[in-house]
Task: structure prediction
Amino acid sequence: MWERLVGQPHAVDALRGAIARPVHAYLLVGPTGSGIEDAARLLAIGLIGATDDERVEQLVFRRMHPDVVEVEPEGTFFLAKQADDVIEESMRSPVEGERKVIILREIERMNETSANRLLKTFEEPPGRTVFVLTTSMPDEVLPTIRSRCQRIDFAPVSNEQLEAVLLAEGVDAQAAQLAASLAGGQLARARALAGPMAGVRRAFAHAPARVDGTGATAARLADELDAQVQAGVASVTEAHARELAAFEADMERYGYQPREAQRLRRRVEERQKREAVRARRELLLEGMTAMECTYRDALAGSASARNRDLDAITVTPRAAVDALEACRAAREAFLVHEKGLVRLQYLCMALPPAGASVRVG
Result:
C-alpha cells in the first residue's frame, strides 16, 4: 500500500516502524499535498491491524471506516465542541480493528481552549486509541500538543517524480509537465492541476491578457471566472452524491448495525458540507495563485516563465506589482467570505490593461 507515498522513502520507513511499535500520538509534518494526508490514513490502516486488506484500505481512504475518524477545523480554529466530540470518540471501543485511530488534520489551527480540553486525553488516551495529527506549519502547533507526539517529516516531491506519476496515470505529457512545474512539490495539487482544476487555473492565468480597462470587460471576465469556479464546485457535489450512494451499498453489504450506520452517515454528511464550502474557497485561491503567477512571469521574463502554455503579458513592472497587490487583497477577502463574485468584479477592474495571445501548440 506504500506506493501511494511518492518520493518519501524516509517517511515510509518511519511509518513502518510506528506500526511495528506504536505509541499513543504521532505528528506528521509536511507541505499540504506532499502526502501527509495519505500517510495518516496508511498509518491508521496499519495501526488497526489491517495492512494489505483492500476492503479496509478503500473504506479508510473514503473516510467511511468506523475505527478511523478524521477531524478537521470547522472554522478558523478547532471548535471547543469538536474537542469534546474527539474526546467522546476516543472513548469508543473499536468496531472491527485492534485500535481506534483519530486523525486530526491541520492541527496548527487548534487554539488553547480546544487544546486544553484535549490535553489530558492526549496525555492519557484510552489504551486502544491512537492520535495521528497532521500539519504543514509545525512551529504553529501548540508546544503542549507537539511535545506529546512522535514526529515524522515529509519532504516536497521533485518535479520529475510528480511528472512521472502523472504520466503513469495517463496524463498527456505536456499537461503532466505543466502541472508538475506549477504544483510546488505537492502530488495532490499536481493531480488537481492536471485534472479538475485545470480549467480554473487556465481561466485565471489567462484573464490578465484580456483586461482592457473597461467595466464591461471586467464584468464579463468576472462572470466567466465565477462560472469556472461553479463548475469545479459542481464536480465536488457530484462526487459527494456518488460517495453517499457507495456508502449506503457498503453499509448493507457488510451488515453494519442501523445505529452505527446512521452515525457514520451523519459523519460523512457533515464532512461533505464542510468540503463543499471549502471547495469554492480553494478554487478561488488556486485562481489567485494562477493569476499571480501570470504577473510574476511578466516581471521575470519568458526564460523563467511558469505558465508555459501562455505567452507572458506586457505590463510595466509597477503595474505588475500593483496587480499582485490587488490579487493579495482578493485572496485575503476570499479567506473571509468565499462566495466573492463582487470581489472578482472589483479585482478585474483593478487589473492593468495588457495584451497577449495564447500560445498554440
In short: The longest strand covers residues 129-135. The CA atoms of residues 183 and 190 lie 5 Å apart.
